[in-house]
Write a structure and sequence with these properties.
112 residues; alpha+beta; Arc Repressor Mutant, subunit A; two-stranded antiparallel ribbon; elongated
């Protein structure tokens, strides 16, 4: 397995955890539900969303509060684009590294 992290600057990163959080928000319509799915605290999930929203030229996630069902969250068009591009980079990287990863696996100690 290849896990990719894009480091734009020391304090500006996009990796599998943040991408999974964005996927969860898209699927659940909720930052807290997406965080729970990842066994992440509500506070941590919101912190990551704030980081993501501040990292790009516009917000990736918008949240609404109140209402009969208590509000929710969704990805913006920019959020959808960033997530799709990151997932494509992951897929391209995995394909490009497949033979080298297989070779590395072949060099591992055998389990006893």
């Amino acid at each position: 397995m290849l896990r990719l992290r894009v480091i734009f600057a020391p304090d500006a990163k996009l990796g599998p955890g943040k991408a999974d959080l964005l996927d969860g928000i898209r699927e659940t319509g909720s930052i807290s539900a997406a965080g729970r799915r990842m066994r992440m605290s509500y506070k941590r999930a919101w912190k990551l969303v704030d980081e993501l929203n501040g990292l790009f030229r516009g917000p990736l996630v918008v949240a609404s509060s109140g209402g009969p069902r208590g509000g929710g969250a969704c990805l913006t068009a920019l959020g959808e684009e960033v997530l799709a591009r990151f997932r494509r980079i992951e897929a391209h990287s995995a394909r490009a590294a497949a033979s080298e990863l297989a070779a590395l696996r072949g060099l591992l100690r055998r389990k006893r």
